[in-house]
Amino acid sequence: MSKRHNRRQRKKLHLDEFQEFGFFVAAKYQDQLDARDREDLLDEFLAFIEANGMLAAVSTDTCVDAYLISEAARGSATEDHRQLVRAWLENRSELNGIEVRELSDAWYPPVTVI
Predict the structure, then answer these.
(1) Which of 37, 49, 67, 99 could form a disulfide with 26 if both were Cys (CB 3.0 to 4.6 A apart)?
(2) Which CA distances in Å does 34 have to 37, 43, 82, 106, 111?
């Protein structure tokens, strides 16, 4: 943003010291998973991220695509969150092709296409 903002504006726009971070993850299903197995896997994934202080926007059509953020009202996902999620995904035999991207601005994330 080209113009200077005062503290209140930066807070409202989540800029500078008020910037918050999240990260994108993706994983492909193993071929043998049926719809019920996918649903169970998603339930376990959501329970895991909520138990670790995160929230996610998730798409589960042909693979798991998710953007994860901190559940704190004002807070960011951390490198520790990324490593926890990576380990969980890699330990699931139902998934392959796991991708965990770097932290990015949660309010103005880059457009991603897989």
Answers:
(1) 99
(2) 5, 14, 28, 32, 30
Per-residue pLDDT of the chain (114 residues; tens, 9 = 90+): 447 888 888 888 878 888 889 999 999 998 888 889 999 999 999 999 999 999 998 888 778 999 999 988 778 899 999 999 999 999 999 999 999 999 999 888 766 555
> Which neighbouring-strand residues pair with 86?
none
Question: What element of type H or E holds 49?
Answer: helix 35-51
DSSP secondary structure letters along 62-90: SEEEEEEEESSSS----HHHHHHHHHHHH
Per CATH, which fold does 20-105 belong to?
Alpha-Beta Plaits (3.30.70)
pTM: 0.83
